[in-house]
């Protein structure tokens, strides 16, 4: 079994929501799920399983960056027979065409990361969402009267960089925003034939420095969490 997740076989649902932050996973479990049980706390990366509108859903953290989500998503898919992972996170906007609080349903993740190449011999610079989750999220957003943007995003291995401006790969694939995990999630799902999607809330606009305040963040992210949960019960 997994060396990074201590849940027993059968304790993790077929659909998993994956925020980066363990405390955000706990927030979702505490505020949205019923009959919740903590099924893993190895390395303080919490995984919870409970019911949302009667359907079993798990939520657990991915940690930060491609290597971390690469490990956790792979073990969920292979050791726990998870069918679908929906990453929920925040991103920084490269352009003022985006606004803080915007929701992005990620089409493809472009990256300079070597993860897919050395893990699965995939040479692509961009890997797309896998399976039906992307379409279900779009349909659910329409039902909830939520506006989402379908877009490519840049998955970066670095948070700080010497050169300012939009990196070349983000320009090449028309990526209006940047985050740090989706590329590895999509690569794992592609290799294993699983469903994977990513919903992002724009938390800051890099050119202007505008950002969601700490007080606004909880309300803003609840919208994304609701969209992910409502989509998850259909998968």
Give structural notes.
This protein is α/β, with parallel strands linked by helices and 235 residues long. It is built from 7 helices and 11 strands. A 5-stranded mixed β-barrel has the order 5-9-8-6-10, surrounded by 4 helices. Strand 2 and strand 3 (47-52) form a beta hairpin. Helix 2 runs parallel beside helix 6 and helix 4 packs across helix 7.
Head-to-tail CA distance between termini: 25 Å
What fraction of residues sit in β-strands? 25-35%
The low-confidence parts are none
Number of discrete helical segments = 7
Mean pLDDT: 96
User: How helical, in percent, are the residues?
Assistant: 25-40%
- Estimated radius of gyration: 17 Å
For the biggest β-sheet, the strand order reads 5-9-8-6-10
How many extended strands? 11
Largest sheet: 5 strands, mixed, barrel
Compressed to H and E, one letter per element, the order equals: EHEEEHEEHEHEHEHEEH
Q: What does the overall shape look like?
A: globular
What structural class should be given to the helix and strand makeup? alpha/beta
